Amino acid sequence: TWGLRSWLRVAELGKMERMKVVLGHLTGSSQRRVWEPSPCRGSLSGPHDVVVVHGRRTPIARSKRGGFKETTPDELLAVVMTAVLNDVKLSPGQLGDICVGNVLQPGAGAMMARVGQFISGIPETVPISSVNRQCSSGLQALINIAGGIRNGSYDIGLACGVESMSLRSATNPGDISSRIMDFSKARDCLTPMGITSENVAERFGISREKQDAFALASQQKATRAQKLGWFKNEIVPVNTTFTDD
């Protein structure tokens, strides 16, 4: 059909453009390159743009004492995966790839991510990977999926981020080299994040009172937004059980 031919033509042009860019990187030039101003890439739009079409999340609970303290991350992940696919009316098998950001789970949550995939009904034919970039792991998952779409590996991908600080310890680094104390930069990796926050607060003059006031205002805004229903299309309800201590 015309539509299919047009789509194939666009795909062909996209590949040609990418080849030109790659060849430009590989081909040297004896002439001095003259740099010219150009519009910011973020301000442009075109048929090859990668776009985020939907996003959902679970509620956020307190670590060790909240409503999710006994809920495994694969269950939380599956709830959101299912909700997203249902909302956009996408057949799970149409996904080209899934990437899940995680920090504390073993292997950056590789097994946890795969289990969550199957619980949500996504077939094993859809590949999945996990990534750990500390606090920006979910963002890195989004970058990875966007990169795969941009380079033509697939057309649709699912980027996720999930964590349970209740079921894993952030203070246990596991088995590490006995030579860590011989290298100052490596030794610094053992410094808790709380110490870093103390150093930042002292450097920029952020008092405890200012931090408490900011935290209170943030909680008040979140409570008001929740009561007004501003998050109703974003938060996915989760049915779970936990022991009341």
From TrEMBL:
One of its GO terms (cellular component) is peroxisome. It catalyses: 3-oxo-(6Z,9Z,12Z,15Z,18Z,21Z)-tetracosahexaenoyl-CoA + CoA = (4Z,7Z,10Z,13Z,16Z,19Z)-docosahexaenoyl-CoA + acetyl-CoA; 2 acetyl-CoA = acetoacetyl-CoA + CoA; 3-oxohexadecanedioyl-CoA + CoA = tetradecanedioyl-CoA + acetyl-CoA. GO terms for biological process: fatty acid beta-oxidation; phenylacetate catabolic process. Keywords: Fatty acid metabolism, Lipid metabolism, Peroxisome, Transferase, Transit peptide. Its EC number is 2.3.1.9. CDD domains: thiolase. The keyword Cytoplasm does not apply. The keyword Lipid metabolism applies. Pathway: Lipid metabolism; peroxisomal fatty acid beta-oxidation. Residues 50-242 form the Thiolase N-terminal domain. Pfam families: Thiolase_N (PF00108). One of its GO terms (molecular function) is acetyl-CoA C-acetyltransferase activity. PROSITE patterns: THIOLASE_1. It comes from the Eukaryota. InterPro entries: Thiolase, Thiolase-like, Thiolase-like_sf_Thiolase, Thiolase_acyl_enz_int_AS, Thiolase_N. This is acetyl-CoA C-acetyltransferase. It comes from Micrurus surinamensis.
